[in-house]
Design goal:
three-stranded antiparallel sheet; 20 strands; single chain; 1 helix; mainly beta; 15-stranded mixed sheet
Length: 273
């Protein structure tokens, strides 16, 4: 009788092992659930037409500036960082965000900090940099540029980009009183251009007291190479929202033009006839 019980136990044990292996094999044969697909974001190198138009307009006292961004794509958000160096050679930073869904963005930033209506401004600010990260549903790109904060009075003077690739020489009497200026590349264009642009980014000269000069100033722009044919300078007239053409001369790769706007400029090439 005991032998029969032993046989029965062996058979049951064998059946249990077979069932276990069958269940394991079945589970292994099941296809794994697919992971949700994510849209890959391409990192691109933007063209002058892809980028928004940036302008940094200083406040009259030079202790703050308005960051103005125009021509933002509808579905793009912008994360930006602004850094600058103080008189004590300390590096200061500002961060901000322009959320998606707005074509223009404006925000006043301080060269300093405020607490309980008491502001402490940084002294000796002259150079800084803005970096902007653009995020769209299927692509990302960025731009960055240096800026130069200067103060000029009635006697005039020379405004310049940090790398001196462009400058604006303002004569005495062209401005009526002491003003602050910020010079920088603008990233993109304020308005589309069909003509051939000879510089990688517009160069801008922005004032705390308007966009007109009472006397002509001399704009100088260094080009990457000497172009063939004639060139002209175009300045953006923000009040009338149009480009204004100014005659220009070129010597080797340096373009000069007499202008009267405090604004963004580009250099246009005219094909040789």
């Amino acid at each position: 009788m005991k032998k029969w019980w032993i046989v029965i136990l062996v058979v049951v044990f064998a059946i249990a092992i077979i069932i276990t292996f069958l269940l394991i094999g079945k589970n292994r044969s099941k296809p794994q659930s697919e992971k949700p697909q994510t849209v890959e974001e391409a990192i691109i190198t933007p063209t002058i037409e892809d980028l928004s138009y940036f302008s940094l307009v200083p406040r009259r006292d030079g202790n703050a500036f308005n960051l103005i961004v125009k021509r933002i794509p509808n579905d793009a958000s912008i994360d930006y960082e602004i850094t600058y160096t103080t008189l004590e050679n300390l590096s200061q930073g500002i961060v901000g965000e322009a959320k998606a869904g707005q074509n223009e963005y404006q925000y006043e930033h301080l060269f300093g900090t405020c607490s309980k209506n008491v502001c402490k401004y940084d002294k000796g600010v002259e150079f800084g940099q803005l970096t902007a990260q653009f995020k769209e549903p299927q692509k990302r790109y960025h731009t960055s540029f240096d800026f130069h904060l200067q103060n000029l009075g009635f006697v005039g003077g020379k405004l310049s980009l940090k790398d001196e690739s462009a400058s604006l020489d303002i004569p005495a009497g062209a401005i009526s009183s002491s003003q602050f200026f910020i010079s920088h590349q603008t990233g993109g264009l304020p308005s589309s251009v069909k003509e051939k642009i000879l510089i990688g980014s517009p160069v801008g000269f922005f004032s705390s007291a308007g966009d007109r000069l009472s006397k002509e100033a001399t704009l100088t722009v260094n080009l990457p190479k000497t172009p063939e044919g004639e060139v002209v300078a175009w300045g953006w007239d923000g009040k009338n929202e149009k480009w204004v053409e100014f005659p220009a001369e070129i010597k080797e790769s340096k373009v000069t033009s007499k202008v009267n706007l405090l604004t963004a400029y580009i250099v246009i090439g005219k094909e040789a006839k």
